[in-house]
Amino acid sequence: MPRTPAQALEILLEGNDRFTVGDRLHPHQDADHRAALAPAQHPFAVIFGCSDSRLAAEIIFDRGLGDLFVVRTAGHVIGPEVLGSIEYGVEVLGAPLIAVLGHDSCGAVAATLGAIVDGATPTGFMRDVVERITLSVLAAPDGLTNSDAAGEAHIRYTTDLLVDRSSVIAKRVADGSCAVVGLSYRLAEGSVRVIAGPGIG
């Protein structure tokens, strides 16, 4: 298992390459590995992704049981429970990488654009999701006219926010034991691009 953020990111991207071309290995999905994991888990990455049903981390990164500690919310919006879960992944489980996983054609981002441009604010707690995405969409140079640019801006915003809001994450990033990277997934192609966290090494 990888011990550095760079090694963890490399394994994720290699797995995504296999998934994209249809040459998956399906690692760590057998009965023996399941039994070996029962006493404890040691994931090599925390994946904080959008809840979109087309964004299943273990599948698109070609990984298996015990590899990834996955936290998901619509539009990968952050709340106390999310931060606590991610902190657990790095502080207690020792994962050297946090990957924020967004994607193109994000419904939560589209709803936010609709609320800003057309005043079509959703009801119920969906409004909270839109409100938490609004700042990042407004910060994008062409975020109000380009939904994919708005989505990528939100990935960068979320990546920065994790370090800004969590002293646990910030400390580990500062000492080099963990890194935060932003990834954008293309739904039609199945490929992942790194769009934030270029200092990882």
UniProtKB/TrEMBL annotation:
SMART domains: Pro_CA
Keywords: Lyase, Zinc
PROSITE patterns attached to this UniProt entry: PROK_CO2_ANHYDRASE_1
Entry EC number(s): 4.2.1.1
InterPro entries per the UniProt record, alphabetical: Carbonic_anhydrase, Carbonic_anhydrase_CS, Carbonic_anhydrase_sf
This protein's record includes keyword Zinc: yes
Family matches, as Pfam families: Pro_CA (PF00484)
Domain of life of the native organism: Bacteria
Keyword Electron transport part of the UniProt annotation: no
Principal EC category: lyase
Gene3D superfamilies hit by this protein: Carbonic anhydrase
Catalytic reaction(s) noted: hydrogencarbonate + H(+) = CO2 + H2O
UniProt similarity note: Belongs to the beta-class carbonic anhydrase family.
Record's function text: Catalyzes the reversible hydration of carbon dioxide to form bicarbonate.
Protein name, as recorded: carbonic anhydrase
Top-level taxonomy: Bacteria, Bacillati, Actinomycetota, Actinomycetes, Streptosporangiales
